Amino acid sequence: MKKLLLLFAVSLLVSCNNTAVQKVVSSLSPDAEIVEVEVNTPAGYLATANGKVNAFDGDPSNLELWDKYIDAHNNKDLEVIREMNADSTQQFGVFKIYDAFGDIVNGVDSHIERLSGWFEAENPQWDTFFSYTMKVDGQVGEWVISGHRLKTTVDGEEKTKIDLADVYIEDGKVGAFWIYTRAVPPPPPAE
Fold this sequence. Notes:
InterPro entries: NTF2-like_dom_sf (IPR032710). The chain is an alpha+beta fold.
């Protein structure tokens, strides 16, 4: 009788169509699954006279460099700023700033001289709210695009504006940047 019960139990297990058991067994199969992954997809592009040039994520250390540069500005440390500026770059030549008013600052000495007067006159303070780094095909250096609130104080009156900085970095130094700005509108009157 025991042999008959054992034969019946084995027959029952063999005849079962247990999909859960089949799934577990098939997942343990040694067959490799091929998964295609696209790597190094461009994060964006730069439009030039010759068409679009791919831009990829840049080195995250560029973000740290830019944050230190902004900290040096907030601390009004002209020597640190001077050290962080490149005298020249392969991409743009002499250090340059293209400001929001259409002026161009050429050279590190001109930059430091201009900053010194501005620090004294308006006590600017930067508060960064985003930064992104990218590498453009065919360029030696990399870029940081960064947004910040800039607060200035003149005769006790504070003003705030929003700036976007487009910063070129080469060999671990700031080589050039462009500033785009907009005023911050006053808050609506309380009801």
